Every structure is written in C-alpha cells, then in structure tokens.
C-alpha cells in the first residue's frame, strides 16, 4: 500500500530538562539542523499543550541552535523540574509543539489558557431545535457540494461528517488567533471553515494545511468547493485519532502568517 501523505513522520526531537544548563536557554540537537531553515530565523514559537504560545529567540552558537530570549518564561510558566522529559514537534513554519512528561512518565498539560464558556440552560433545548431545523433545511444544498474526487473507501463508517456550525454559532477567542467550533455531523472527511470567520479576519488559504493536536501534526489537502467556501480533507483521521463523538465540541484555532493560514490547532471539549 502506498504511503499516505498524512502518515509522513513530522520532524521532532526530545530533551531532558536540567535547570543548571537549561533555565535560560535550551539547545537543539545538532543533528536536527537539517530540518531548520538556513539562515536561521530570528524568532520561533513554542506551542504548549495548555493552549498558549510563547515567542522565543533563535540563536546559533558554534553550529548549534538554541532557544534563548523567552525560553526562561516558557520554562517558568510550565514549572519545569529537573529530569522532566520534553518533546518538540516542528511544523516547518517557525512553530514547535512542546509536550511535557513528568517524573511519572506521563504527558502533562500545563500553563493552561483559561476560557470562559457562556451557556443558558433555560434556552438550551430551544437552541438545539433551531440548530437541527437549520441543518435539515441546508441538507440538500450540502449534498450537492460533495467533492467528486472523494474516495468512499477511505471514509470511516463509524463517523459522520464534521462541518461548521454555520448559522448562529460564534467562534471562540482562545489565544487571540481566529477560532471557531465544530461538531461531528454527517461527513468527517473534510473540515469546512466558516465563511463568516474567513471574512471577518480577512484570511486566505493555500492548497494544504496542517492539523495540530495533542498527538502531533497531520497534513490536509484543500477540497474542491465553490470559491467562497474553504474546506480541507484528512479531517476524518483527526476525528478518529481524537475519538471525537457526536456530543463533543471541537475548538479549531487557526495559526497564520500575514493572514494566510498554515495550521489549525485542534482542542476537543468532551460533551
């Protein structure tokens, strides 16, 4: 079987934290240099599993790259202790997803970005009915927009599709980046980006995108829809990997450079 692009191994490395040598800076293994840009960019972003992003300086000393200015803040916010294990997953666009493993050997979520959820229990039933009615009215239109290049053999019969919550569902500002929420619906093989979020933030997209979750990074290719609609394939793999169910809500945070989105960070809020 041919290797699928989604299964390509993403560059990554690990380090063991020791405050005596890494409290102010963190060295990157020299063997990892082949994955870094040349010349080395001045800045990099460290994305924690708690949802926050830290900007650090990139410095090269005797052919070895280091995280310098800003690293001490990352270490302090994550309360790093001697002997803890860190993994760094590189997305190729100045961003490293950093996971922390404590002394027990388990992955830990630290420096969590707090979000405020507003709910109205009295109106919940009415809102659900309105949402269901809206989805039923749009079902015929959605069926006409199925990508003709989609291979049904690649779909997972256990899941329906994830699409945007379209009418009436506002996105969540998690870390200042453009965000929206979605749920598991009738098709899962593509993620539809809400048009109102695209227009409000003036976002643009290329032919590919990276899906980032707690397990790592997967690539998605842009689907073929009308010009004013943007979707990306490979979403079913993210849903399977994160065991997304119908009652769950998925928060999608979009990372961009000059308004061009290159990655979508996935956070699943269990229902």
Strand tally = 16
* Uncertain stretches: 115-175
Strand content: 25-35%
Structural class: alpha+beta
The number of distinct helices, counting runs of at least 4 residues, comes to 5
Task: Give the N-to-C terminal Cα separation.
Answer: 37 Å
* Rg over C-alpha atoms, rounded to the nearest angstrom: 20 Å
Order of helices and strands: EHEEEEHEEEHEEEHEEEHEE
Give me the oligomer status. single chain
Mean pLDDT across residues: 76
* Tertiary shape: globular
Specify the biggest β-sheet: 8 strands, mixed
Helix content: 10-25%
Give a structural overview.
The strands form 3 sheets. Strands 1, 2, 3, 4, 5, 6, 7 and 8 form an 8-stranded mixed sheet that branches. Strands 9-10-15-16-12-13 form a 6-stranded mixed sheet, covered by helices on one side. It has helices at 19-22, 71-77, 124-143, 195-201, 235-241, and strands at 12-16, 26-27, 43-48, 53-61, 64-67, 85-90, 95-101, 107-108, 162-164, 179-184, 190-193, 204-213, 216-221, 230-233, 249-257, 260-269. The protein starts with 11 loop residues before the first strand and ends with a strand. It is built from 5 helices and 16 strands. It has 271 residues and is of the alpha+beta class. Helix content is 17%, strand content 34%.
């Amino acid at each position: 079987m041919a290797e699928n692009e989604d299964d390509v191994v993403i560059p990554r490395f690990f380090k063991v934290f020791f405050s005596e040598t890494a409290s102010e800076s963190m060295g990157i293994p020299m063997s990892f240099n082949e994955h870094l840009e040349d010349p080395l960019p001045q800045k990099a972003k460290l994305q924690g599993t708690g949802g926050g992003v830290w900007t650090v300086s990139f410095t090269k000393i005797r052919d070895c790259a280091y995280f310098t200015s800003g690293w001490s803040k990352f270490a302090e916010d994550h309360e790093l202790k001697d002997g803890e294990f860190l993994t760094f997953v590189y997305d190729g666009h100045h961003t490293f997803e950093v996971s922390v493993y404590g002394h027990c050997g388990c992955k830990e979520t630290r420096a969590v970005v707090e979000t405020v959820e507003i709910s109205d229990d009295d109106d919940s039933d009415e809102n659900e009915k309105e949402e269901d009615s809206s989805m039923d009215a749009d079902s015929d239109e959605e069926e006409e927009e199925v990508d003709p290049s989609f291979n049904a053999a690649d779909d997972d019969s256990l899941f329906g599709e994830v699409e945007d919550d379209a009418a009436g569902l506002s996105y969540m500002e998690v870390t200042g980046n453009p965000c929206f929420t979605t749920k598991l619906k009738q098709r899962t093989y593509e993620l539809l980006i809400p048009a109102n979020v695209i227009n409000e933030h003036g976002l643009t997209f290329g032919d590919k995108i990276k899906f980032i979750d707690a397990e790592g990074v997967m690539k998605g290719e842009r689907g073929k829809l009308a010009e004013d609609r943007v979707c990306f394939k490979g979403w079913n793999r993210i849903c399977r990997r994160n065991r997304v169910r119908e009652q769950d809500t998925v928060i999608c945070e979009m990372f961009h450079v000059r308004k061009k989105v290159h990655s979508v960070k996935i956070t699943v809020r269990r229902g």
